[in-house]
Write a structure and sequence with these properties.
The structure holds 2 protein chains of 2 kinds.
Chain A (H helix, E strand, L loop, with lengths): L3 E3 L4 E4 L4 E7 L6 E7 L6 E5 L5 E3 L2 E6 L4 E6 L8 E8 L3 E3 L3 E6 L1
Parallel strand pairs in A: 2-11
Antiparallel strand pairs in A: 1-3, 3-8, 4-5, 4-9, 6-7, 7-8, 9-10, 9-11
Chain B lengths: L4 E3 L2 E4 L5 E6 L6 E7 L5 E8 L2 E5 L7 E4 L6 E5 L8 E8 L7 E2 L3 E5 L1
Parallel strand pairs in B: 2-11
Antiparallel strand pairs in B: 1-3, 3-8, 4-5, 4-9, 5-6, 7-8, 9-10, 9-11
Classes of the chains: A mainly beta, B mainly beta.
Chain lengths: 107, 113
């Protein structure tokens, strides 16, 4: 089983749509959880940390379910600039990345 | 805003040659990482480094690889005898805590010919 598994995508959505990404992880001892975004040929950049209580940052909402070892990211009112690959990242003694889900937002 | 810097941005080397990739982590960070990303593939963990020693390494990080913190600011990745399949983008990252959010450098694109 892969350490961090994500929806394979790609997701192609119109501007203004709501889109949800899912992620599962295998190491139950994992302690920290993040969503990163990566633009083509660029470095991963932190989008948001994910907390057990769930957290929101503007149009972005992240949820964590430790019992199911499941993480989600919801993007509301998507913009053209949201087009990127979204990476689920799980930390224990290091940080392990999912393969990423590619999102394209179209006009 | 503090950032992780990596040099060079692009390195071309002949198969069998040694390369050293350099990174300057964020100054008050204590945990350092190297990742690689082969074109079109996922970001893969190589190694983490804390308190002047390796804390974790992946199966990719074999005897051909080594890391060093030669002074108070630099963090280097050495590949002793490069292979064609080492061609990838190599990212350095640093964080202020174990498993804390990490900040990435812009990467070094290594091309082995």
């Amino acid at each position: 089983r892969k350490e961090v598994e994500q929806d394979p995508g790609p997701f192609n959505v119109p501007e203004g749509a709501t889109v949800a990404f899912n992620c599962t992880y295998s190491n139950s001892a994992s302690q920290s959880f993040f969503w990163y975004r990566q633009d083509c040929r660029k470095e991963p950049k932190l989008l948001m940390s994910v907390y057990s209580s769930g957290n929101e940052d503007g149009r972005f909402t992240a949820q964590l379910n430790r019992a199911s070892q499941y993480i989600s990211l919801l993007i509301r009112d998507s913009k053209l600039s949201d087009s990127a690959t979204y990476l689920c990242v799980v930390g224990h003694n290091d940080m392990r990345f999912g393969a990423g889900t590619r999102l394209t937002v179209k006009p | 805003e503090p950032e992780v810097t990596q040099t060079p941005s692009h390195q071309v080397t002949q198969m069998g040659q040694e390369v050293i990739l350099r990174c300057v982590p964020i100054s008050n960070h204590l945990y350092f990482y190297w990742y690689r990303q082969i074109l079109g593939q996922k970001v893969e963990f190589l190694v983490s480094f804390y308190n002047n020693e390796i804390s974790e390494k992946s199966e990719i990080f074999d005897d051909q690889f080594s890391v060093e913190r030669p002074d108070g600011s630099n963090f280097t990745l050495k590949i002793r005898s490069t292979k064609l399949e080492d061609s990838a983008m190599y990212f350095c990252a640093s964080s202020d805590g174990d498993g804390s959010k990490a900040f990435f450098g812009q990467g070094t694109r290594l091309t082995v010919v």
